[in-house]
């Protein structure tokens, strides 16, 4: 049902455009990394969370009213966003709003799909009476001025505009593909086709005229066989009805970090020379919630190259081509290479971490080796693409442990035993 905020809708200052961020995804292809938090809350780039990018994009684009739709493991994400102050979204008229699934007396109703999630919150949208509604994904890395997309949408007189991005044709089957005519109008949508006709992938960014959106969400909700998904149901239905749908080409950096490989690559893109994704653009600050830790310390014994090291880190060992989040400690004689170390992790003396993602608060004990070519194969997991190893949050990997590259560890490893990480979190 539509969320009944008010009996008889009143308007809190009409808005030109309102944004709705879908941030309830589990991210099952990220394995243990999203066991306890939603994908948009994952750390990225040394000091950010993934959702920082879409929130910052909204602020830079002049969108000051944002709904964040949460569902899976929402506590960490809700706490992080808070009042929206880091993104200047703590407004009296507008701001950021956390929108969990609607609960009615005696029963609960989860979001059944992307379209149903927006449908359940039409009451929230109506409060602000926007001319247009921008629907965004909370788990993509990119910088985009949505105002340019809105200008194109209005100029073309489209019912809906969908942002598209060119992907390698051999990867196009992973995405929803938009087939367009020479003028950019969408004539066909294919959801993850086996034989894609082109390389124009949907970015999961949809801009609708508000009344058109409400009409088709209502029709979709009335269809009992629908999966309540924008790509699978709403967009195809609009095309069948002859609505004008336009493809907005985006040619900047964009990364869907839905797999261990893509998350690792998106971080590594920051430390290329030159970086594929620039965090240092003074005209497009990525806002985030600060940890307020002391400055990092690099000891005389340390060797640091081509890496990002943030506040609160203490480095006594060797770091190369890696990203270290706040509060990380690396002991004397330890080596970290081609890796991402989440906040508060400890790499003890003479331990080695190669091509791995180490979870928050995890301790790699002295003389352990993560990502060894001929280490133990007991924890090898197909989720760990491209020989990337994944260690969960709050674990202890005991002294002298040898883990083969491509391992995923969900429990602490202590003197040959596996122990639940919760006891050591």
Q: Which features characterize this protein?
A:
seven-stranded mixed beta sheet; 425 residues; 8 helices; six-stranded parallel beta sheet; alpha/beta; 35 strands
Account of the 3D structure:
The chain is α/β, with parallel strands linked by helices. Helices cover 18% and strands 29% of the residues. The protein contains eight helices and 35 strands. Strands 5-4-1-8-13-10-14 form a seven-stranded mixed beta sheet, with helices on both faces. It has a six-stranded parallel beta sheet with strand order 16-19-22-25-28-31, with no helix packed on it. Helix 3 crosses helix 6. The protein is elongated. The model is unreliable at 1-12 and 420-425 (pLDDT under 50).
Determine Rg (CA atoms, Å).
23 Å
Strand content: 25-35%
What is the terminal separation in angstroms? 39 Å
The structural class is alpha/beta
**Share in helix:** 10-25%
Q: What would the principal axes of the Cα set say about the shape?
A: elongated
- Low-confidence spans: 1-12, 420-425
Number of helices: 8
**What is the overall pLDDT average?**
90
Oligomer: single chain
Offer a concise description of the structure.
The chain is an alpha/beta fold. The chain contains eight helices and 35 strands.
Blueprint of the fold:
Elements: E1 17-22, E2 43-44, E3 48-49, H1 51-60, E4 65-69, H2 75-81, E5 95-99, E6 103-104, E7 107-108, H3 114-120, H4 122-128, E8 132-137, E9 140-142, H5 146-156, E10 160-166, E11 176-180, E12 186-191, E13 200-209, H6 210-222, H7 230-240, E14 245-249, E15 254-256, H8 260-268, E16 297-298, E17 303-305, E18 308-309, E19 314-315, E20 318-320, E21 323-324, E22 329-330, E23 335-337, E24 340-341, E25 346-347, E26 352-354, E27 356-358, E28 363-364, E29 369-372, E30 389-391, E31 396-397, E32 402-404, E33 408-409, E34 411-414, E35 417-420
Parallel strand pairs: 1-4, 1-8, 4-5, 10-14, 16-19, 17-20, 18-21, 19-22, 20-23, 21-24, 22-25, 23-26, 24-27, 25-28, 26-29, 27-30, 28-31, 29-32, 30-33
Antiparallel strand pairs: 2-3, 6-7, 8-13, 9-15, 10-13, 11-12, 34-35
Helix pairs in contact: 3-6
């Amino acid at each position: 049902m539509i969320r009944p905020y008010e009996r008889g809708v009143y308007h809190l200052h009409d808005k030109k455009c309102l944004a709705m961020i879908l941030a309830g995804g589990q991210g099952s292809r990220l394995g243990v990394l999203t066991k306890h938090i939603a994908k948009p809350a994952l750390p990225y780039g040394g000091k950010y969370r993934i959702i920082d990018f879409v929130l910052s994009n909204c602020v830079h684009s002049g969108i000051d009213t944002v709904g964040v739709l949460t569902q899976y493991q929402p506590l960490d994400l809700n706490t992080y966003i808070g009042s929206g102050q880091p993104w200047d979204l703590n407004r009296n008229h507008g701001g950021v709003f956390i929108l969990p699934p609607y609960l009615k007396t005696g029963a609960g109703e989860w979001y059944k799909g992307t379209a149903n999630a927006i449908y359940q919150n039409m009451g929230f949208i109506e409060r602000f009476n926007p001319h247009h509604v921008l629907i965004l994904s909370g788990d993509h890395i990119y910088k985009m001025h949505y105002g340019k997309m809105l200008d194109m949408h209005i100029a073309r007189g489209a019912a809906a505009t969908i942002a598209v991005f060119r992907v390698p044709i051999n990867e196009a089957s992973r995405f929803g593909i938009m087939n367009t005519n020479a003028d950019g109008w969408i004539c066909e949508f294919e959801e993850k086709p086996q034989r894609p006709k082109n390389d124009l992938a949907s970015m999961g960014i949809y801009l609708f005229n508000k009344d058109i959106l409400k009409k088709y969400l209502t029709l979709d909700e009335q269809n009992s066989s629908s999966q309540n998904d924008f790509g699978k149901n709403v967009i195809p239905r609009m095309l069948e009805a002859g609505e004008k749908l336009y493809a907005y080409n985006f040619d900047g950096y964009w990364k869907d970090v839905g797999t261990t490989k893509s998350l690792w690559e998106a971080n590594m893109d920051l430390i290329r020379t030159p970086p594929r994704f620039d965090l240092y653009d003074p005209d497009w600050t990525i806002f985030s919630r600060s940890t307020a830790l002391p400055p990092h310390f690099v000891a005389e014994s340390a060797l640091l190259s081509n890496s990002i090291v943030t506040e609160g880190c203490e480095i006594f060992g060797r770091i190369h081509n890696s990203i270290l989040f706040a509060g990380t400690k690396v002991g004397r004689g330890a080596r970290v290479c081609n890796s991402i170390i989440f906040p508060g992790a400890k790499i003890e003396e003479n331990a080695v971490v190669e091509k791995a993602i180490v979870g928050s608060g995890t301790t790699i004990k002295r003389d352990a080796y993560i990502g060894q070519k001929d280490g133990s194969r007991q924890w090898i997991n197909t989720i760990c693409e491209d020989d990337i190893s994944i260690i969960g949050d709050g674990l202890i990997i005991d002294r002298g442990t040898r883990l083969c590259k491509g391992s995923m560890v969900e429990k602490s490893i202590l003197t040959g035993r596996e122990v639940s990480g919760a006891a050591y979190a």
